Amino acid sequence: MKKIALLFSFFILALAFQVQAQESGPVITFKENSKDFGDITQGQQVAHTFVLTNTGKQPLIISNVAATCGCTVPSWPKEPVAPGKSAEIKVSFNSTGKVGKQNSVVRIYSNASEPIEKVSLISNVLTPNN
Prior knowledge:
The chain is of the alpha+beta class and 130 residues long. The chain has a single domain (2-126), classed as Immunoglobulin-like (Sandwich). It has one helix at residues 2-24; strands spanning 28-30, 34-41, 45-54, 62-67, 72-75, 86-94, 100-110, 116-126. The longest helix is centred in the first third of the chain and has 23 residues, at 2-24.
């Protein structure tokens, strides 16, 4: 019984350290997580800048930003984002060859407490003769 109590205590202690580490690390807070352009014409390019703030207590390092297809191109800051500071992720979408509802998802990989965040560009691509 003592071994079980000791094991349980160790588990609780490890969990507490993990929670504390997450609370003191970087945290990404977006001003908005998606941008809806509504109807656009096939071949049109649209872009949006997503503003993020590091609301954590350690520098935020964005290691990679990846789009779901080649039609979506992101650019992001390569330098760390200090606590309390903001940065921009610029995303452009090329609708050439696309038709109908589009949801271009971009994944942001970082050292934040939530290591993968997502933003998206939404549009409805109409053929030129519509």
